[in-house]
Amino acid sequence: RRVLTQPMAWESLKRILSSGEIRIESLERLYGLVSTVSLQPEPIPVSVKVVLLGDRMLYYLLSHYDPDFLDLFKVEADFEDDLDRNEECYELYARMIATMARGLKMRPLERSAVARLIEHASRLAADQRKLTAHDRVLRDILSEADHWAGQAGADTVEASHLQQAIDEREYRASRVRERSREQISRGVVMIATTGEEVAQVNGLSVLRLGASMFGQPTRITATARPGKGQVVDIEREAKLGGPIHSKAVMILSRFLASRYAGDGELSLSASLAFEQSYGGVEGDSAS
């Protein structure tokens, strides 16, 4: 990403790899802005192997739009974002955590602290059978846990210090989550948690803001009356529903027709609505 954001860096890198030499040239000469010819340093022969690290999307975009990219970078390695959570991986993951701790020059970690960090890594992966392979967040948590251990006067980092670091990180990023809970408790957002209602359920969407994730409850209501077999998606009609959500509602509509009116016309007209939802609704799980 940094190579692409620096002016002329990407084109210069491709030129060096193609020619096998480094030429020192001014930008004015490269762009043809000067007509005078001056002395130029001799090119420097170079023989290097370049490894580029970046996002998958950047790789796909360069492969599609830059014809020289695949000619210069022929070996592709797509790394997993998650690791399997098993007994063999536990030992390797603990070694990785110990390596990060030594690199940060922090206090020794207790076994309970390592176990708590591995558990949190599974939460970061959003899968109880996986562990995240992104170590940046883990390094930040370890560094903050070492700080809290120092504040407590401890010689080692314990599970309580690690938990405090996790809690403090969540608290600092909880402004939107707390505001959402406040609106529900004050009755601004109508969410019923007791009793029974016909044609009304509480849905839960997961919002991700930076490194923070939390659940946002929403009331979903449905209406039905005699009609011509049409299921109206109010979010789509109001242009608040995404294409995946709209497709899921259409599939649901066809399922109802095939299940209850396979030989004739479904004499039903229904509608679905996400109440007090002022943003877009997307994803098949929203249906």
UniProtKB/TrEMBL annotation:
Signal peptide: none annotated. Gene3D superfamilies: 1.10.8.60, 3.30.230.10, P-loop containing nucleotide triphosphate hydrolases (3.40.50.300). GO terms for biological process: proteolysis. Residues 2-80 form the Lon protease AAA domain. Keywords: Hydrolase, Protease. It comes from the Bacteria. One of its GO terms (molecular function) is peptidase activity. This is ATP-dependent protease.
